[in-house]
Design brief:
Length: 124
């Protein structure tokens, strides 16, 4: 069974936590993916390893790790891959695929242009 694991940094901010939870809910509902879990790198639970365990316990054989990070950096290039590697050693039959950071998506420029347009429209 294929699973999506949404990975976010995590924050102590209630507002940030609420925003991520809302996004996860939207993605879960609209994706149609039966097994859709989430985990946080820091500050919040479930941790990434806990979320991977949940996926496995629910029957995942493949996990697509969806990175909620704008750009490459230590977390994207080192921390998350290290955690996934450790999980792969623990579950050698499990297949992992990591997404690129969202800032690498070909449509990110369009999203920023739309945001600029909307922002300038609201400027007096």
């Amino acid at each position: 069974m294929k699973a999506v694991l949404f990975i976010s940094h995590g924050s102590r901010s209630f507002k940030s936590s609420e925003e991520v939870q809302n996004l996860i809910g939207q993605l879960k509902n609209k994706s149609g993916v039966a097994l859709f879990e989430y985990g946080f790198l820091e500050q919040q639970r479930p941790s990434i390893p806990e979320a991977i365990d949940t996926c496995v316990h629910k029957g995942a054989t493949e996990i697509f790790v969806l990175l909620n990070f704008l750009n490459s950096g230590k977390h994207v290039d080192e921390d998350v891959p290290r955690i996934v590697n450790t999980a792969h050693q623990r579950y050698p039959g499990l297949k992992f695929t990591l997404s690129q950071p969202i800032g690498q998506h070909p449509k990110i420029g369009e999203l920023f242009l739309q945001t600029i347009s909307e922002g300038l429209t609201n400027v007096p």
